[in-house]
From TrEMBL:
Name this polypeptide is given: Polyketide cyclase
Signal peptide: none
Organism: Nocardioides currus
Pfam hit, one: AHSA1
Residues covered by the Activator of Hsp90 ATPase homologue 1/2-like C-terminal domain: 22-159
Family: Belongs to the AHA1 family.
InterPro entries in the cross-refs: ASHA1/2-like_C, START-like_dom_sf
CDD domains for this protein: SRPBCC_CalC_Aha1-like
SUPFAM superfamilies: Bet v1-like (SSF55961)
Length: 160
């Protein structure tokens, strides 16, 4: 299992997930840069993602939806804020309606994904920051840790 550590810090309003992959940094980067590859690992296996728009450049918005086993769709977006490929990128991750309009009633996480060489492969560190303890708790209650863990654990099969 790639996920090696999960920490949520209510004082700093962060959720940090660390995963190790048996693939070079450039290969892990490719997954996040390419929408078709990203679809295979963004979201748990029972809620596959479909990216409608994806361009990993600052100032762009990626839009996607996840589909439940019952066929219900849940939309989201990434507002890309910084890119330093292949080592990191930052984005605001939010919930949206099916027309990809942001849902102001739902939390928006500020995310930093970092990829570094580690033991012949890649250590990926995923940090999501929230503006309030309530927002952090809300995404934790929604199963973000479990969903991200299931999603990240799919990467090994993709890079094998």
């Amino acid at each position: 299992m790639p996920v090696t550590d999960v920490q949520h810090d209510p004082d700093n309003l962060t959720l940090t997930i660390v995963a190790d992959f048996a693939a070079p940094v450039e290969r892990i980067w490719e997954i996040y840069a390419d929408a078709r590859q990203l679809e295979k690992v963004w979201g748990p296996p029972t809620y596959p993602a479909t990216f409608v728009d994806h361009d990993l450049r600052p100032g762009t918005r990626s839009t996607y939806f996840m589909t439940s086993p019952e066929g219900e769709k849940f939309a989201g977006f990434w507002d890309i804020t910084e890119v330093d490929g292949p080592s990191s990128f930052s984005f605001d991750d939010g919930f949206a309606d099916l027309d990809f309009n942001p849902n102001p009633e739902m939390p928006v996480g500020k995310n930093v994904f970092t990829f570094t060489e580690h033991d012949g492969g890649t250590r990926a560190t995923y940090v999501a920051s929230h503006t309030s303890a309530e927002d952090l708790q809300r995404v934790l209650d929604m199963g973000q840790v479990e969903g991200m863990t299931e999603a990240l654990n799919q990467i090994d099969d993709l890079v094998a």
